[in-house]
Amino acid sequence: MWPFIGNDAGVMKSHELLREVFQTHNPKQIAEAMGLSVSMVYKWAEAPEEGSGAVNPLDRMAGLVEATGDVRIVEWLCTRVDGFFIKNPKAARMRSYAVVPATNRVVQEFAEMLSVIANAAVDNDISRAEADRIRLKWEDLKSVTEGFVRACEEGNFQTIHNHHKGQA
């Protein structure tokens, strides 16, 4: 079994999640859809200590991300289910920066997002390349905003300050 990536305090274990999923989704249907035996699917919901010998797909994905260090795997999976992935910023408690510069960073990212949209829409048509630029800027905005929210929760704006310095 691979260790968890990051801080797993308070995070449900993969077999526990699968056990909950199997309460509302029939394991037999899942097995049929995936071309697997029902017993294999049920083994995924067993704790590793119970000795099932079957590493579940969630732990395999976590192990693959940990082995490669490449979060594009998680981004791909999130995209497959019409979602997105935003990595939580590291919480460094070196020193705290004022709220106003951190707020300005979020406002600046939002203004840049609006600028990309306005430039793309000026001809009343948005091309594929323009849509791609909008998507990239949107992902940046989500990431910066998530960092801001976490900084608010933790009272630490060091991460946002460092991110802004790296963008300048």
Word description of this protein:
With 168 residues, this protein is mainly α. It has helices spanning 14-24, 27-34, 38-44, 57-68, 72-80, 99-121, 128-154, 158-167. The chain has two domains: 14-80, no CATH class; 99-167. The protein has eight helices and no strands. The longest helix is centred in the C-terminal third of the chain and has 27 residues, at 128-154. The protein is extended, with a radius of gyration of 21 Å.
In short:
With 168 residues, the chain is mostly helical. The chain has 2 domains: 14-80, no CATH class; 99-167.
Give me the secondary-structure topology:
Layout: H1 14-24, H2 27-34, H3 38-44, H4 57-68, H5 72-80, H6 99-121, H7 128-154, H8 158-167
Q: Unreliable segments (pLDDT under 50, ≥5 consecutive)?
A: 1-7
* Rg result: 21 Å
Compressed to H and E, one letter per element, the order equals HHHHHHHH
Query: What is the average of the pLDDT values?
Result: 82
Give the total of beta strands: 0
Return the domain count. Answer: 2
Largest sheet: none
What distance separates the N and C termini?
41 Å
Apparent shape: extended
What proportion strand?
A: under 5%
Secondary structure class reads mainly alpha
Helix-residue proportion: 55-70%
Count of separate DSSP helical elements: 8
Key terms for this structure?
168 residues, 8 helices, 2 domains, extended, disordered N terminus, mainly alpha
